[in-house]
Structure formats: structure tokens, C-alpha cells
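Morning!

This is the sequence you dropped in the shared folder:
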Amino acid sequence: MRHRTADGSMDLVQLRTFLAVFRTGSLTAGAAQVGLSQPTVTTQIQALERHLGRPLFERLPRGVTSTAAGHELAARVSGPLEALEAVVSGAVTDRAAPPEPPVLLGGPAEMLAAKVVPALAPLVADGVRLTVSTGITDDLLARLHSGALDLVFATTRPRGRTVLAEPLVDEEFLLVAAPEIADRIDTARLRAEGPIALAGIPLVSYAADLPILRRYWRHVFETRLEAEPALIVADLRAVLAAVTAGAGISVLPHYLCGRERADGTLVTLLDPADPPINTGFLARRVGAPSRPHVDLVRARLVEAARGWRAGCSAE
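The structure's back. C-alpha cells below.
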């Protein structure tokens, strides 16, 4: 079978080779899986990259990691190629195929509730099963490593060669208050003199060490926040509810408070030229067996995140 078509377009051999490298995270291991030499595999991958006009892998000191374009291509071709190989091998019978197992997805409760789960609702309606777990990123990534999760929305970039991570969306953080609290704050003084203008205003935080507030103070005011929170509640949605009810001020991700800002029940106190931003990543294991429904969930989240980014820009 030819490795390239006459017009330079993709062919099935190239795509099969690409999937082997994608799943193993290695040109050498991928070559062994498809029974080709490593130089041949490298040539095929390069041909695909030229055809698509985008790199599919980033070369590492040991192995490779997929780019966003590589993830997108894998999601598009893995299911059809597996179905075709099943036909060729005679594996297709009249018996109904066993149902796909649930896709095991983890992430922070607030992002899952506000963005991720609603984005995946159409897939559930089409027969994709999901089991969603909440938690902090380090714990969820440990479960990803062990195989207890298929995908993780991570609030920090995962480290190590055993995890593939692609940037999904940037979270912009905002200093917010209810209108009655904002009326007590001299925002002109806040812009000119910094947090001294906030003296006496209660702080609402999801943790005792005020992690998001401290980061905002350091990034925007270039000073260390030395204060005790007046209210601690370990869920950003509850922080939002408390601030909207007039308990005090806090720093929240823009995606979580867009409705309240639009209807005027929450006010942004500052509009810095360089607001603090945190990038969310979608993580999966290197070399994990390809599963069509996992690929569908990943592709759907990547597509949905484009809309999240557009919505943030509009704000």
C-alpha cells in the first residue's frame, strides 16, 4: 500500500501510523506497533504535517507529545479507522456491540457546573455516558495517572511525560462587590492608591489563606495581602452568592459571575490593563487506549472552549 497519495493528501497508512504514535507517545513505540521502521514513521508524520499545515507533535528529549492539532485529528479519525479495521479483520458480526463504558471526567466543581457539564449535554443525549468527579487538580491528576480518570480539567499545567495537556481556556479574575458595598468604596482612590481604599471592607474567600485574593493583590497592586477573611466557604459558587448578598468583596473568575455582572447585582471594582489570568488545561494519559467516546468528549470540550474564549472577549 502506498504511503502517500499522488496529490500529497492523507492516506489510511499515514493515519494508522499517526494514531500509533499518538497513543504510545513515541515514534519508536509507534513504529513497532505498526511494523515499520522509525525513519518511515517520521516521514509519514512529516507528510501529514505538511498536508495539514500544522505540527501534530512536539518533539521531546524522550518521545513526543501531541499538539492541539494532533488531538483534533485523533478525535476525528480514531473511530472510523477502528471501524474499518474491524471490517477488514472480520471482527464485525451481527451481534450488537457492547456499550461503551462511561467516560471518567474530573475537574473543579465550579468549572464543571458552569461550563463543562452543560457543554457535554448533547453528547449524553446522543448516548455518551459520563461519570464526573470533582476535586483539586493535584488529586485528580493522581487519579488520571492511575487510570481512575480518562480526562481531567486541570487548573495548573500538568508536569511529566506521562500526561498530554492542551490549553483549553483562560480564566480572568475580577475584584467584585455588590452595589451597596461598591458604593462605600472610593474607586478613584482605589485606582490611584491601591488596596488602602478597601480598608474595613470584609473579604470573602474559599480558603483561609486567601489564594485567589493574594494573587490578585500581588499581580494588580504589587503588594502582599495581609488580612484575615471575614467569611470562608469552600466553593466559589457560594463565595459568589455571599458577595452578591452583600457580605463583602472577593476575587472571582469572570466565567462564574457573568450573569450577575450583566444584571447589575455584582459590580467590578477595577478594570486593570493586565488582569490576573489562569489557564485551564485538558489532560489525558500518554499511551492510554483510544476510546471513541473519550475522543468525542475531548473534541467537544475543545470546540466549546472556543465559545468560552469568545464570550470572555466580549465582556
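Headline: Residues 1-8 have pLDDT under 50 and may be disordered.

More detail when I'm at my desk.
O.
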